[in-house]
Amino acid sequence: MQNHTPVFNRFLFLFISFPLGLIFFVLTVVGLSLSTSLLIIWIGLPLLLLTLFLIRGMAALERSMLASLTGVVIWTKSPPTRSGGKTRFMAILRDPDTWKSALYMLLKLPLGIVSFTICLTLPIIATSLTVMPLVYIVLTSIVGNTDAHIAQIFFSDSYTFIPITGVFNLIDFAKCLACAALGVLAWIGIAKVIHGMTALWEGVARALLGSEETMKGPTPAEPYDLHYTGLQAQEMRG
Known about the structure:
Elements: H1 7-37, H2 44-70, E1 76-78, H3 85-94, H4 96-130, H5 132-146, E2 151-155, E3 157-164, H6 170-209, E4 225-227, H7 230-237
Antiparallel strand pairs: 1-4, 2-3
Helix pairs in contact: 1-2, 1-4, 1-6, 2-4, 2-6, 4-6, 5-6
């Protein structure tokens, strides 16, 4: 099924991936480190159980965000809820999906930093280029009417500037228009970059948050029950 998720939704997912990645990383590292170091006493075991449940909960939240913001639906499985506490704990402990989810929580931080940086810097650069003609006109008007000190607008590289003297210069304005054209092209490129970044996230999420047994559809895989949302069911029908 072709994905027609709006670019803004994908941008939002990438933008919040860093703060969420930081939270997930800290909870995973602190939880696993503390619980394993305390296994020699009784408190380590319940703390490890709590950490594993927390990791699976964060993985479920991540799958939900991927589905709602990027349109990426990832099938998964969960341990049975009717079994005893010890059996359920051992099932979670032995389940590869638990540890793949933990690995995802660790990778989310560096990937989130890259995504956040791209989402923050590229739009700023594109916006600066796009509005440069307007900035030139406004600053020229201000300098011309107030006799303020001469200002300069950065253009092309560190050795070339567009001077603001208070007198409209057609050549300098043409440079600003060229910057605006580059800004428009930059916005188009940003949309492609956002799609590429979300595709990277999709690949990582499918590898670490999905279950191989459930990739082909909603068929139960013992001893697990398959859980899927209405969005997933709609995708299967589509």
